[in-house]
Design goal:
The protein is α/β, with parallel strands linked by helices. It has two domains: 123 residues, Rossmann fold (3-Layer(aba) Sandwich); 94 residues, Orthogonal Bundle (Arc Repressor Mutant, subunit A). Strands 2-1-3-4-5 form a five-stranded parallel β-sheet, with helices on both faces. Strands 6-7-8-9 form a four-stranded antiparallel β-sheet, with helices on one face. Strands 10-12-11 form a three-stranded antiparallel β-sheet. Strand 7 and strand 8 form a beta hairpin. It is elongated, with a radius of gyration of 20 Å. The relative contact order is 0.09.
């Protein structure tokens, strides 16, 4: 995995670089916002660790420029001594995916960026696979084993989101937002669509993949369906 750390504290940057390289990551480092922005725009990274207080360009502005101007989708973890709720919200609103306050555990940092990178790879992947269920996003084709599954656009959209988040409990509100945005229908439309989707992807097969976790949400998994 290739990681960029943008941090002006040389001791922190060196510690992070040494730790990540020791576990097999390839790491680039920048000590100011201008250099960090250049590296992030001109190279592809699986994750970016970004300090909030930087010379040249601050972390918030840099994050916004990566998301809005450069349209870079690499997950960004903000690393900063500012840990108030307001600072965190500002970071997330600028496009950050996660937030860690200094001082921090190097082991936890490594785990967090690995999870962020894996999740982003799932979302950006054109071929999604969960157990024997596969989806080709570009071709709009879904198979379970060697059997082609004919889905309508709504079913395809729901299944795509579920497959992009495998084995994770997804709340009803999250699914509704994915399909209808800020204007979900008043009726129980989501349950109806999920029921029809289950009839296609599960009913003809021996092992169910789409699970309802009552009172919590839904999960697409070939593992135990407990929340």
């Amino acid at each position: 995995m290739r990681v960029l750390i943008i941090e002006d504290n040389q001791d922190i940057a060196l510690s992070v670089c040494d730790y990540l390289e020791a576990i097999g990551y390839t790491v680039d480092a920048a000590g100011d916002g201008v250099t960090g922005l250049h590296l992030a725009v001109t190279k592809d990274y699986d994750a970016i660790i970004l300090d909030l207080s930087l010379p040249g360009i601050d972390g918030i502005s840099l994050c916004r420029r990566l998301r809005q101007d450069a349209e870079k989708s690499a997950p960004i973890l903000m690393l900063t001594a500012r840990d108030s709720l307001e600072n965190k919200l500002e970071g997330f609103e600028s496009g950050a995916n996660d937030y860690m306050a200094k001082p921090f555990s190097l082991k936890e940092l490594a785990v967090r960026i690995r999870v962020l990178a894996e999740h982003t790879n799932y979302k950006n992947s054109k071929k999604l696979v969960v157990a024997d269920l596969s989806m080709d996003i570009n071709a709009h084709q879904v198979f379970r084993g060697d059997k082609y599954l004919n889905l309508n656009p709504m079913q395809f959209r729901l299944l795509r989101f579920l497959m992009q988040n495998p084995h994770r409990l997804i709340k009803r509100e999250e699914l509704e937002y994915e399909v209808w945005g800020d204007d979900p229908p008043d009726s129980d439309a989501l349950r109806t669509h999920l029921s029809s989707l289950r009839q296609i992807i599960d009913k003809p097969f021996d092992r169910p993949l789409l699970h309802t976790i009552r009172g919590f949400g839904y999960k697409l998994s070939d593992k135990n369906a407990e929340a």
